Automatic annotation (TrEMBL):
GO biological process, one term: cell adhesion
Signal peptide, first to last residue: 1-20
Protein's name according to its UniProt entry: Ig-like domain-containing protein
Organism: Aldrovandia affinis
Keywords from the named record: Membrane, Signal, Transmembrane, Transmembrane helix
SUPFAM superfamilies referenced in this protein's UniProt entry, alphabetically: Immunoglobulin (SSF48726)
SMART domains: IG, IGc2
Residue span(s) of domain Ig-like: 111-194, 220-299
Amino acid sequence: MRKGLLWAFIVGFCVVYTVSECPIQLDPPSVVVRHGDPVSVNCTMSGEHKGIGWEASVAAVDMVTDVQFVTWRLEHLTDWNTGPRCYVNYMNNTEYAQCQEKLQLIVYKTPDSVSISVVNHTGPMVEGEQYQLQCEIENIAPVRNLTVKWYKGETLENQTSYEDLTKTPVNVSSTLLITPTSTDDGEQYSCVAELELGPEGPEPPPEDKSEPLSINVHYPPFFSNPDDEALEVTEEKEGVPLNCDAQGNPPPAFSWYSPSDHVEKVSQTLIISASLSPGDHVYTCTASNHLGENSKKFTVKVIPRGDQTVLWSLIGVGVGVAVLLIAGYVILKSRADGNSII
């Protein structure tokens, strides 16, 4: 039996109870301490008393009568449920009373490790399919103060908090569902375990981050410019390239085909022959990998050399007529204004 209770019994038939306003003060009233670190809290009674002390599972302080404060102190706090309470025996009006003040104590521990993996999957992901990422957090406390944050690159994707009141270290798992697209190829996902310990806790809040998980996304080919293309060349033009600019993962294979010219080559770029006959020539490029294929058309219009000569002649005549018309307008306007043109 503790000395405080023994003292109350010895004095006779006195009343021992907890009052609504306990005349003791804790300094500080609440403490956040890392597991294994030191802790020290004073309990002060401003008025007269018959005894003051600390009840705790570790480092309890026996009741003393000749002091105004007592200190609960540990060099290394390793107990998760110490439950420290300061108590005082004093005269309340004409009766003996005892009151207690519980220390608001949070003991925390950062995790041993934080890691991220893909559940039931290895190798590349496929665009449009769903995958589950899992974050494993080992030996963290208290879990009610834990927030798990998921990032894609530097962007916060999701976060989860917990209501478990367990004070001792536990293992925690968090999951994130993703449906990657081609733009996610090479993206890095990570998870962060953050302990939000309130205003008495350390700033910034303790956090541990996993190593990033880089994802490889496979997707069918697509064209940077999906529209069919058309271009004009003259008969003497040589080495006109047709660029089949397609992306895919795995990198696509390319094939070309033209019914009129019987061309079929495997290359991203086709250089058409300079000996093509006048008229339209249609080339189809197909990009393919194991996930699918995509095609687009290139229409090459070959213009005879004579047509080009006539065209440039007409352009020259048009330019000459335009110059004469402008000069005539300037002369007429100057005469109308009374000016002479030399």
